[in-house]
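#struct-help
A.M.: can someone run this one for me? Single chain, 96 residues.
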Amino acid sequence: MRKDGKYSPDNRYEAKLTSVAHARFDIRPRRLLSREDAAFYIGVSPTTFDRLVADGRMPKSCQVYSRVLWDIHKLDIAVDLISDPEEATSGREIEL
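D.P.: on it. Structure tokens below:
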């Protein structure tokens, strides 16, 4: 920041970035997530997310106009099935 309180183009980010500053935080609630956001949500890279979708451990996407999106509720169910299949289903059928 310059002495007059304005930002100059060369030093807009004077503070050192911590690992938390690099994290992606979006506080707006959303039901459908993009591929990158869905991967981030479950804690894997987009490439790993693609493999999980391909082998059926993550749900298939839905298309809204030109957007390819994943339902956050189905992602939650899929993660529950991966972490503890017996407890997640508890006798009921879940379709991804």
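A.M.: thanks! The beta strands are 32-33, 62-64, 67-71.
D.P.: also worth noting: The CA atoms of residues 17 and 77 lie 34 Å apart.
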